[in-house]
Write a structure and sequence with these properties.
By secondary structure, the protein is an alpha+beta fold. It folds into 2 domains: 274 residues, 3-Layer(aba) Sandwich (Hexokinase, domain 1); 157 residues, 2-Layer Sandwich (Nucleotidyltransferase, domain 5), CATH 3.30.420.40. Helices cover 44% and strands 18% of the residues. The structure holds beta-D-glucopyranose. Beta-D-glucopyranose (BGC) binds next to helix 7 and strand 12. Belongs to the hexokinase family.
């Protein structure tokens, strides 16, 4: 009997030990896996490091590439495209000055662009004209803004007085099928939206007076004049192959004619240029514009003598807006991770738009998705690897970034918003709090790197145009005695305007790179709907009615 009891006791003890060993073993394994998950985050943090020293190297590289892109066609990954916008609308007219230079009646004042365009691949000497906004002008001007995910149509009523205009804006998401289909379908859609706005307003479609239109086309275009240009390539997930190499304004003009719309494309501009125009209209110290939305880009005011690749370019203003297409910028100083490399390889445009892929809304969310996927492969804390995590751009282009922002900015103690997004959108239910905290941290690292790189890009422009404080006049001995000109950068795009943490990181980095004394003179100003409204203002200033008054030099 005693033997039996002993046997049972030993059996129970062995079983207990086995269970304990199992539990301990599982715990050890879980802990090990968790350590690996934390390791993924650590590695990400290290490879996304953006010290001020590193950012300053990016600043220098940006300025160097700008010089190279201005020096020769194809001299840099930065295309530094001419825009033929050689005067910007101003809410504070400086009309007298221009009437003296050009000698035209004071109704409308012109700056003129004379281009020796052998360097710009046009056979003959051509003359195009532009003018600063004739504020005596009244009328209705239209803006069409084809950006990344959305499409806007605007009507701007000019009241004939300084700073007086009213806007009517209609916004629509671009159906994804139109982004990769035929150009005819996309342009039909654009023209129909415009037709709708015209019909909605009091402007009669049948009116014999031709309506002027500013077309904001937010893709790399080689401009041949202020109102025409050839599409170089698509970005932001657009891939309408039959459109590449075509003259964009011409295609729109033909579509408008087909629809019976009595409208004329007066200007064709990049969205950064529209933003700069509106920014400058409100504040004459505005020298550059930056967009950080689905895609990213910048433009700025450049002296014509610095545009070496187009020698002989002459404008009465002595300058011209240059569309940098900075989305394609690249520097070895940029902190690149394995996620960036994979994303690039699986994107619709590999080896292209390197800066854009680290900064803009189309990509940030997908970088976050890739890191969470890696984490879920390291540990079952995320559950099985879900298909929603495995597919690149699973939620559609740019859709993941607003979710990323919402998770990043969830300040509830239990991270309830994070839990809901993971469950509803990424199909990861019941993630424990400690793992949800990790997800927030991933969003933070990715957004912070993007914002700091964008800040470095902005300082790169300031450096190129001598507004970063490095070459400014000192009135005393210390840096704080430095005399700096007030410098305004117009800024637009959902990442900057709607993602608070992103915006704060960008400002923080600007201050770190420039130093407080200089940074206080640099102002980033949001221009609401600037890309479209600015284009309509430019359409007014380049109106064919005005062009009738042009006197060539
Ligand atoms: C385009 C630019 C545009 C930017 C912001 C980029 O992908 O190449 O032309 O300005 O996105 O929309």
């Amino acid at each position: 009997m005693a033997k039996v009891v002993l046997g049972v006791a030993v059996g129970v003890a062995v079983a207990a030990c086995a269970v304990a060993a199992l539990v301990v073993g599982r715990r050890v394994r879980t802990r090990r896996k968790w350590k690996r998950v934390v390791g993924v985050l650590k590695e990400l943090e290290e490879s996304c490091e953006t010290t001020v020293g590193r950012l300053r190297q990016v600043v220098d590289a940006m300025a160097v590439e700008m010089h190279a892109g201005l020096a020769s066609e194809g001299g840099s990954k930065l295309k530094m495209l001419l825009t033929f916008v050689d005067n910007l609308p101003s809410g504070f007219p400086i009309l007298g000055q221009y009437s003296m230079i050009v000698g035209v009646p004071p109704v409308c004042y012109f700056g003129m662009v004379f281009e020796f365009l052998s360097c710009c691949n046009l056979a003959a000497l051509s003359v195009s004209c532009s003018c600063i906004l004739p504020w005596s002008e009244k009328g209705t001007f239209y803006g069409l803004d084809l950006g990344g995910t959305n499409f806007r149509v605007l009507r701007v009523e000019l009241g004939g007085q300084r700073s007086s205009f009213d806007r009517d804006v209609a916004q629509q998401a671009i159906p994804p099928r139109l982004m990769t289909g035929r150009s005819e379908d996309l342009f039909d859609f654009i023209a129909s939206s415009l037709q709708h706005l015209v019909e909605k307003g009091n402007d009669s479609e049948q009116s014999p007076i031709i309506k002027e239109l500013g077309f904001t086309f937010s893709f790399p275009v080689k401009q041949t004049s202020v109102s025409s240009g050839i599409l170089i390539k698509w970005t932001k997930g657009f891939a309408i192959t039959d459109m590449v190499g075509k003259e964009v304004a011409g295609v729109l003009q033909q579509t408008l004619a087909r629809k019976g719309l009595n409208m004329q494309v007066a200007v064709l501009v990049n969205n950064t240029v529209g933003t700069l125009a509106l920014g400058h209209y409100h504040d004459a110290d505005t020298v550059a514009a930056v967009i950080i939305g689905t895609g990213t880009n910048a433009c700025y005011w450049e002296r014509t003598d610095a545009i070496i690749k187009c020698q002989g370019l002459l404008t009465t203003s002595g300058g011209m807006v240059v569309n940098m297409e900075w989305g394609n910028f690249w520097s070895s100083h940029m902190p690149r991770t394995s996620y960036d490399i994979e994303l690039d390889a699986e994107s619709p445009n590999p080896n292209d738009q390197g800066f854009e892929k680290m900064i803009s809304g189309m990509y940030l969310g997908d970088i976050v998705r890739r890191v969470i996927l890696r984490m879920s492969q390291e540990s079952d804390v995320f559950g099985p690897v879900f298909s929603s995590l495995s597919v690149p751009f699973a939620l559609g282009y740019a859709s993941m970034t607003p979710l990323m922002a919402a998770m990043h900015e969830d300040d509830s103690p239990e991270l309830t918003k994070v839990a809901r997004i993971l469950k509803d959108d990424l199909k990861i239910p019941d993630l424990p709090l400690k793992a949800r905290k990790l997800v927030v941290k991933v969003c933070d690292v990715v957004a912070r790197r993007a914002a700091r790189l964008a800040a470095a890009g902005i300082v790169g422009i300031l450096k190129k145009i001598g507004r970063d404080g490095s070459g400014c006049i000192r009135v005393g001995r210390t840096r704080s005695d430095t005399k700096m000109r007030r410098t305004v950068v117009a800024i637009e795009g959902s990442l900057y305007t709607q993602y608070t943490m992103f915006r704060e990181y960008l400002h923080e980095a600007l201050h770190e790179i420039l130093g407080e004394d200089i940074a206080q003179h640099v102002i980033l100003k949001v221009t609401e709907d600037g890309s479209g409204t600015g284009a309509a203002l430019l359409a007014a200033s380049h109106s064919s009615k005005s062009v009738d008054n042009v006197q060539l030099l």
